[in-house]
User: Which sequence fits this backbone?
């Protein structure tokens, strides 16, 4: 029997960066907020002296258990989707703080071009530049409108960085200075400068100095221990939800956190959401949590799945090109090249976001008139810290085991450098998310089905960026250079990034988008769907900075909604669509 609990002002489904931001801002405004997180409770102290590569990097301690819940995958609608049984392309976080605990800390702002990508592309190159099956659209919000929220997120997280010469205008500098450079980063910087590019230190949530944010939360200085990606930070030097926004919410006295609370349904009636239903994973008991407003703040894939599972919004149909839920799922074009050097570089030490970057080939920062693709990506040499189990770089032709392999591994551990890129992923009509008709999770609910493949746009972009990487490695003086210039079909193996986006996309038209610029559902005023699921495409950057900015804007809209007793939030862009 379902137990119905007392009604609250706001319930959030998932407590990572977005759930924490919503909780902290709404609780500070005096609203009662309940946060439901299906993973375990965890705090910074839980990671003390846990620099265990086997536990976190090989056995995925901070990731979702795929034996209980996974997704199914296929490249196109003619294929039968099968469950993803082991981790590869992306890593789905679990536990309090979500992927915000095990992330690397790279924190970009998207370019002004990204938010008006369709309009700006047509203005500069003509509509024929956009391929027929590329469902490219503007976001319904501009960079200038989002900039104050970027600034707020960066101040909350204490981001360390220096100004991107190609970036949009900033109202303030980064709150902390850029991280220290290294010999390897200086080699990349000097080489790219000589090549005529404009290198700069990448923005980082691994902080260059101790910092206290506007909410009074202190983040410590990075120690360059190299245990960032897939790990929780035992120094408290990587900004994450459990050392920033979650404690801020708890300190208000208006926030209640419930872990091991797995939401299975968003309850709604007559165009209004009334609450959520969830299962306590410790006891098996089922509860209904009524709320004035629901914020769906789980990971991208779960945001989409819960909407589809709850019958909210119209599912996307690629054949009819109708519906919006599941539309414009995007990933990323990510790969790297490597080279060996005579000089030793201390690559064992590092931090998840420590890197030197160039942005000369991102967005529309370069002329695409004679190119057969749109957008681009940032190129960098990153020093995330090289761990011994997963990193054994050896020159080509070396056996994969035995004495020679061991000797080459030891000799080259400090002599290999890698230059990589993250290229934009632009939407395609046949890349989308829906519910699988065959496979279910441990509760009997259908798994999410991912239909995704790389297309000509992605392959042409990949080849272009790979050639730039090869040129840089050659100019750096590298030997035995290896760069894969061919992008085959997408597969869920090997790992690329956890930069999944789309499915509940933002816009100024209910016909082509699921949420408005406050991430409020068009057809259910009191439901806000917050996260990278709102991205209408994926840019040439890591998504977290944009996720944080959109979350802060959404909380502003939620407060306005609650203060005014409801209604669709109106902006200059969507006003005509609502009248």
Assistant:
């Amino acid at each position: 029997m379902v137990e119905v609990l007392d009604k609250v002002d706001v319930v959030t489904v998932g407590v990572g960066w977005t759930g924490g931001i919503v909780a902290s801002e709404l609780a500070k405004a005096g609203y009662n907020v309940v946060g439901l997180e299906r993973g375990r409770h965890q705090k910074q102290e839980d990671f003390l002296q846990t620099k265990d590569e086997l536990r976190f990097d090989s056995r995925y301690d901070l990731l979702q258990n795929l034996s209980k819940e996974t997704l199914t995958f296929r490249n196109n609608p003619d294929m039968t989707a099968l469950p993803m049984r082991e981790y590869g392309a992306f890593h789905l976080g679990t536990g309090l703080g979500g992927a915000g605990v095990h992330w690397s800390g790279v924190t970009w702002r998207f370019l002004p071009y990204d938010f008006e990508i369709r309009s700006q592309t047509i203005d500069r190159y003509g509509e024929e530049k956009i391929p027929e099956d590329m469902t490219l659209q503007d976001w319904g919000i501009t960079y200038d409108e989002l900039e104050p929220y970027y600034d707020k997120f960066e101040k909350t997280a204490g981001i360390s960085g220096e100004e991107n010469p190609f970036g949009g205008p900033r109202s303030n500098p980064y709150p902390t200075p850029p991280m220290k450079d290294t010999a390897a980063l200086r080699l990349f910087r000097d080489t790219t400068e000589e090549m005529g590019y404009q290198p700069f230190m990448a923005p980082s949530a691994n902080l260059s100095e101790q910092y206290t944010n506007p909410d009074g939360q202190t983040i410590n200085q990075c120690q360059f221990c190299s245990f960032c990606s897939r790990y929780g930070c035992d120094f408290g030097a990587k900004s994450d939800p459990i050392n920033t926004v979650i404690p801020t919410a708890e300190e208000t006295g208006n926030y209640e956190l419930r872990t091991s609370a797995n939401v299975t349904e968003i309850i709604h009636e007559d165009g209004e959401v009334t609450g959520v239903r969830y299962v306590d994973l410790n006891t098996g008991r089922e509860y209904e949590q009524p709320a004035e407003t629901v914020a769906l703040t789980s990971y991208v894939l779960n945001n989409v799945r819960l909407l589809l599972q709850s019958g909210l919004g119209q599912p996307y149909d690629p054949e009819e090109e109708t519906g919006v839920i599941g539309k414009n799922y995007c990933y990323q074009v990510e790969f790297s090249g490597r080279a060996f050097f005579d000089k030793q570089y201390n690559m064992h030490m590092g931090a998840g976001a420590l890197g030197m970057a160039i942005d000369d080939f991102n967005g529309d920062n370069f002329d695409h008139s004679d190119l057969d693709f749109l957008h681009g990506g940032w190129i960098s040499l990153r020093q995330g810290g090289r761990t011994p189990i997963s990193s054994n770089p050896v020159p080509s032709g070396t056996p994969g085991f035995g004495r020679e392999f061991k000797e080459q591994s030891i000799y080259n551990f400090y002599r290999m450098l890698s230059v990589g890129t993250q290229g934009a992923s632009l939407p395609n009509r046949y890349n989308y998310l829906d519910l699988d008709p065959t496979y279910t999770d441990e509760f009997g609910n259908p798994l999410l089905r991912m239909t995704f493949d790389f297309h000509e746009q992605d392959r042409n972009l990949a080849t272009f960026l790979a050639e730039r990487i090869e040129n840089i490695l050659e100019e750096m003086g590298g030997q035995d250079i290896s760069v894969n210039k061919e992008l085959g079909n997408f597969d869920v193996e090997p790992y690329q990034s956890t930069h999944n986006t789309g499915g509940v996309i933002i816009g100024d038209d209910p016909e082509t988008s699921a949420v408005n610029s406050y991430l409020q559902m068009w057809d259910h005023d009191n439901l806000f769907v917050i996260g990278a699921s709102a991205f209408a495409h994926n840019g040439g950057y890591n998504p977290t900075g944009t996720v944080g900015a959109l979350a802060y804007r959404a909380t502003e809209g939620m407060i306005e909604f609650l203060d005014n007793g409801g209604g669709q939030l109106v902006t200059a862009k969507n006003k005509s669509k609502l009248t």
About this structure: The mean pLDDT is 95. The chain has one domain: 3-385+415-577.
